[in-house]
Amino acid sequence: MLFKKVVIAGVGLIGGSLGLALCKRNIVPQVVGVDPDQDNLELAVQLGAVHQGATLAEALTGADLFIIATPIGVSLGVLEMALPYLQQGTIVTDVGSVKGRLVERAEAMLPAGIHFIGGHPMAGLEVAGVSGAREDLFEGACYLLTPTEKTEPAALIRLRGLIECLGATPMELDYREHDEAVAVISHLPHLLSAALVNTVSYDAKEQLLLTLAAGGFRDTTRIAASNPLMWRDILLTNRSMVLAAINKFRVQLDKIEQSIEQFDPDILVDALTRAQNLRSTLPENRKYRLRDK
């Protein structure tokens, strides 16, 4: 058995989905949820996402894995509150999409014998709360881990093993490389999706455009439906990497704009073909999406 007691702080979509997988697959005998929203916590128990709910102090007694699944803006605060209750040998991880500040602060504040390993499952939906949680959310997904030179190898092996039990594939990255990568493939797409929707919202013919909007617009803008406050914290926390990603995108958009402005079909087709070819190589790794179709 990899872990005997897992505590999940923040039983929302990701925390709840982790709990559902751990409980329903009998991976861990005791999963305890902590959440400031008592109604959400009670629902998590009803849905089987956690075996029981408790306060942070109560929950951490005897825990050998502590998962911080709160919004990224409060993750450090939750870790600081948990610090007096963590025991020797406990592994602490998170699920946030920005790692730099959290990894550095966590390693600085945790005493020897308590192991922090940054984590980020590359999975999600445009819903919030445990009501949208899914046991199979991580099936086939890449689950990023950001160990450092201070990480204990045995702790990393145990966490990797748990991730594999979820049906996900663990992958290790330097936390700085992680933040740079997700700025391009996760954070930038959200900004572009929001900008595209806002382009329509500021148009004088907004209602006509929305009436005519078909699958392409809906697919491209799907992630704009995500929680704005959550994304505010993500984008500002990863500010420098996001700004760099925006600049990279601007270069590509300028090239396409110039090809249209100069009526240069060769450059335009080259850009579209390059995108088509690369897009066709992306694997379909979301098993639950295939089942939903």
Low-confidence stretches: 288-293
Kindly, what is the distance between the CA atoms of the first and last residues, rounded to a whole number of angstroms?
Answer: 35 Å
- The count of domains is 2
The secondary-structure class comes to: alpha/beta
The profile of the biggest β sheet is: 8 strands, mixed
Beta-strand percentage range? 5-15%
Q: What is the CA-atom radius of gyration, in angstroms?
A: 21 Å
CATH class membership of the largest domain: Alpha Beta
CATH superfamily of the largest domain: NAD(P)-binding Rossmann-like Domain
Arithmetic mean pLDDT: 93
Instruction: Count every beta strand, where a strand is a DSSP E run of 2 or more residues.
Output: 8
Structure description:
With about 290 residues, the chain is of the alpha/beta class. The chain folds into 2 domains: about 5-175, NAD(P)-binding Rossmann-like Domain (Rossmann fold); about 180-290, 6-phosphogluconate dehydrogenase C-terminal like domain (6-phosphogluconate dehydrogenase C-terminal fold, Orthogonal Bundle). It contains 13 helices and 8 strands. Strands 3-2-1-4-5-6-7-8 form an 8-stranded mixed beta sheet, sandwiched between helices. The two termini are about 35 Å apart.
